[in-house]
Amino acid sequence: MTPTFCRTPLFAACSLVSAIAALPVSSVHAAGFVEDAKVTLGLRNYYFNRNYLNSTDPRIQGELQGQAEGWTQSFILDARSGYTQGTVGFGLDVLGLYSIKLDGNRGAANTQLLPIHDDGQAADDFGRTAVAAKAKLSKTELKVGEWFAVLPILRADDGRSLPQTFQGAQLTSNEIDGLTLYGGQFWKNSQRHDASREEMAFNSGTPAGLVEGDDFNFAGGEYRFNGNNTMVGAWHARLENVYQQSYVQLTHSQQVGDWVLGANLGYVTGKEEGSAKAGNLDNKVYQGAFTAKTGNNTFMVAYQKLSGDTKFMRIDGTSGGTLVNDGFTNSYDNPEERSWQIRHDYNFAGLGIPGLTLMNRYVSGDNIKTANRDNAEEWGRESELAYTIQEGSLKNLSIRWRNSDVRRDVGQDLHENRLIINYPLSIL
């Protein structure tokens, strides 16, 4: 009997699972392909509720929204083969993604849990299949197809029902100890709340709006030394005929008595590229995050400063996780914005409750420049209480409650709650 999820957009991943199971493990060339294969099915239940405050409600087809609310059940089948034996090893990775609406109608707009139809109603379900072929020679891998790519200059977002994926090609090399080199090109973008594949684009936040570019080309390298306690990274990316961006980063951690101190320093610079479809662009980011961990407590302070007339540049729909003040609800990445953060994490293992953690942070931003206002301000408070079951039949099932508030001089004021349940099942 064929499982229900194999009759949805997960069918390609199901086919790979069946193919792996059917391959004779005695085959010399297929042995690595089969023996090193890993297949997991992630069950993700996601509830999202956002209340707009202080008469800042967005409009949906002329009507004030008031509240954005939705609830989905998602299935994420991640099948990754090993490599065939030989000088060059070949493999295949497949993501089968499918999400079902449990609740949510016109109010689901702006939750980004589901696609929204032209009439403002949320889709009943959606999904897609991402397939990538891979080849490995020595310690260098070439990957071509579609997958969940996470790079400092292109971070796929996995903050809703299904992860964002990109179509493209990437070369990753680890031939030199401690040094990882990257290079490649992406040409299609599948956002976290969409089943389609769109052109790589930049949402300029100006009257130009969403600007489609040509291919997204990138190159970068990260060097780890000092017992992996120190990392230096450098990256350059181009959304052809729209923008170019460079990023340098330094991270370091150091044991000092009972404390572990850490630093994450970064500098980003960006401007227009080629025919400049989005017009003249100018953005710089200076940032630093400093952590101190002792026992079950971790403290962090961070500062992030943007300069220039353009907000932080990133492909439409991607995560702002490269920025030290990026959070659940806001990235504090407006033109000229300055922001600082204070954060505390606590692990309740110290009180005899392993798997339970609590995070609280506060971020304040000012000096925001918009078309109609200078020196605007905003602030946000975010908390996450999370628990992961440590043993038994539900081992690794995690429950996360995220509670947030945001207030702005420009934009929406909101109060938000999210409840996320993840259960990873190992199939192979």
From TrEMBL:
Signal peptide span: 1-30
Keyword entries, A-Z: Signal, Transport
A GO term for molecular function: porin activity
GO cellular component term, pick one: membrane
Protein family membership: Belongs to the outer membrane porin (Opr) (TC 1.B.25) family.
Protein name (record): Outer membrane OprD family porin
Organism expressing this protein natively: Ectopseudomonas oleovorans (Pseudomonas oleovorans)
